[in-house]
From TrEMBL:
GO biological process: protein refolding
SUPFAM superfamilies: Chaperone J-domain, HSP40/DnaJ peptide-binding domain
Single annotated GO MF: unfolded protein binding
Record protein name field: Molecular chaperone DnaJ
Cross-referenced PROSITE patterns: DNAJ_1, DNAJ_2
Annotated source species: Brevibacterium casei S18
Domain of life, source organism: Bacteria
One Gene Ontology CC term in the entry: cytoplasm
Record keywords: Chaperone, Metal-binding, Repeat, Zinc, Zinc-finger
Domain J: 13-78
Length: 349
């Protein structure tokens, strides 16, 4: 006769398995079980045989202690003493008491004369079939058979009705930020399905279309697991002057012809800060990009730069004196052709 699962009630301290005292309340047992089940669940420990075994032990302990009747019976069995064992017994010969002797008083019956029942649960109980079990205990042990299945992890070893804690659902939300708010971080208030607002501080330097996960702020679990998350999508409004290039900021800087030709020092705006002076070298062509270090977007990784692209602006209305000056400049630079070689380069391609 097999001596496996029945001896568990004598050999295993289910209270110790769950880390609770023998007078623990139902709530304390439930809380301890959920915590351990999450820790040792096979999905969280793929390929870990030790964690798998621990997960089964936790489930077995919870299955017994979470039920009032089975807990009372377990406590009575434990009170008999840890030295008791299940054995085949020879019907009273020579004082070698068998399985029925051990449980006859506990479950009320006729000791060795009791009719035995063979109970073989299907699927993944603890060690397969239980072998010969007295009728009084068959129904109780039936709770440990059947092979539970959860999340693709079959044959987990305790009761077909077992359902480990599952994470609650996620909540999707979105918010609109100004360009400056996105760069500097901002507090936004989200309206949750339960009607309660949720205040969130967005990260510094968040980008347009970026998704932010707020752990534990989603829907509650249906069976005591961890709550879901809030997935917040950020939409950033365009800025009239700046555009973003990674952690750098870009802008076009209008300059006059004389500033580009002769060189100059001009004021350049920064995002939400004081203007800075930028030197325009003499002879700067339109389209050249100048770099102002440390004036970009500040993030955890560092601060980007401000990239200033020069754009030479031709005057629309010239006074008589200005027109005469431009004509004099034209005459003085007739030998210079800004398009020299352009046609030849075009033909060569």
């Amino acid at each position: 006769m097999s001596t496996g699962p029945q001896n568990d009630w004598f050999e295993k301290d289910f209270y110790k398995t769950l880390g609770v005292s023998k007078d623990a309340t139902d709530s304390e047992i439930k809380k301890a079980y959920r915590k351990l089940a999450r820790k040792y669940h096979p999905d969280a420990n793929p390929g870990d045989a030790e964690a798998e075994a621990k997960f089964k032990e936790i489930g077995q302990a919870h299955q017994v202690l979470s039920n009032k009747e089975s807990r009372e019976q377990y406590d009575q069995v434990r009170a008999m003493g840890s030295g008791a064992r299940f054995s085949a017994g020879a019907g009273g010969a020579g004082g070698g008491g068998g399985f029925d002797d051990v449980f006859s008083d506990l479950f009320g019956g006729g000791g060795r004369t009791r009719t035995r029942t063979t109970y073989s649960p299907g699927g993944g109980g603890f060690g397969g079939g239980y072998g010969d079990v007295p009728p009084d205990l068959a129904d109780l042990l039936n709770g440990f058979g059947g092979g539970a299945s959860y999340g693709g992890y079959g044959d987990s070893g305790f009761g077909g009705g077992y359902s480990p804690p599952v994470k609650g659902g996620d909540i999707k939300s979105s918010t609109n930020l100004s360009f400056t708010e996105a760069a500097n971080g901002a507090s936004v208030k989200l309206k949750m399905p339960n009607g309660k607002p949720l205040t969130v501080r967005t990260p510094i330097g968040v980008k347009d279309g970026q998704k932010i996960r707020l752990a534990g702020k989603g829907k509650a679990s249906p069976n005591g697991g961890e709550p879901g998350d809030v997935i917040l999508t950020v939409h950033v409004k365009p800025h009239p002057v700046f555009t973003r290039d990674g952690d750098n900021l870009r802008m076009d800087l209008p300059v006059s012809f004389d500033e580009a030709a002769l060189g100059a020092e001009v004021k350049v705006p920064t995002l939400g800060g004081q203007p800075v002076k930028v030197k325009i070298p003499a002879g700067t062509p339109s389209g050249r990009t100048l770099r102002v270090r440390g004036k970009g977007v500040q993030t955890k990784k560092g601060t980007g730069d401000l990239l200033v692209t020069v754009e030479i602006v031709a005057p629309k209305n010239l006074s008589k004196e200005a027109k005469e000056a431009v004509e004099a400049y034209k005459a003085a630079t007739e030998s210079e052709d800004p398009r020299a070689g352009l046609l030849d380069r075009a033909k060569a391609s």
